[in-house]
Amino acid sequence: MGVVMFTGIIDHTGEIVHLEKGDSSIALEIKTQFDEFTLGESISVDGICLTVTGNKKNNFTCELSSETLNVTTAKNFHVGSIVNLEKALRVSDRLGGHFVLGHVDTVAQLSEQKYMNDFLICQFTGTLKKNYLIPKGSIALNGVSLTINEVTDAGFSVMLIPHSLEKTNLSKLKVGDSVNIEYDYLAKIVVVNQAMGG
């Protein structure tokens, strides 16, 4: 399988309707508005690139490994969880957000939120690699492509527009909740290149 990419533009949210725990993995069944799947295709679930292992009309199944559970918020999934969904980018698609691989780097916690008219400003903290955080650069939160408003000593902030609040599960976040973080792929390339003296 080649490189799979997403845009961070969430199509809709789905609901976990069944969850089965194995010794070191979890199998999920998710209710969705998508009505067509190819077995083996990739899909982003809350920013995590997963493989469709089964499908029936408006539902699909996928499995999460122990590594995925260790580094993402998926360990907190339960029946009834609302998750952001995006199908993989096709070559002919427009790139409305930024390149998102679905490889979660870390998790961060919502430490503060406040409304500014219809916009919601959210501050996140955690064990973050600050050299990947660029003011006005891109970041993916639960798979949602967002622009970093400000980088602080404690973390970073983003501003959620009404569309993002309506179409994603970020509107359901409460202070203390965790989100999946994927740093901008291009920022990572630049940092690694600089570290290698490029």
Strand content: 35-45%
- Rg, alpha carbons: 17 Å
Classify the secondary structure makeup into a structural class: mainly beta
The CATH topology of the largest domain is given as Elongation Factor Tu (Ef-tu), domain 3
Distance between the termini: 30 Å
How would you sum up the major sheet? Answer: 6 strands, antiparallel, barrel
> If helices are DSSP runs of H or I spanning 4 or more residues, what is the number of helices?
3
Mean pLDDT, rounded to whole units? 92
Shape: globular
Order of helices and strands: EEEEEHEEEEEEHEH
Task: List the uncertain runs.
Answer: none
Number of strands: 12
The oligomeric state of the chains shown is single chain
Which second-level CATH architecture of the largest domain applies? Beta Barrel
Number of domains: 2
Trace the largest sheet across and list its strands.
1-2-5-4-3-6
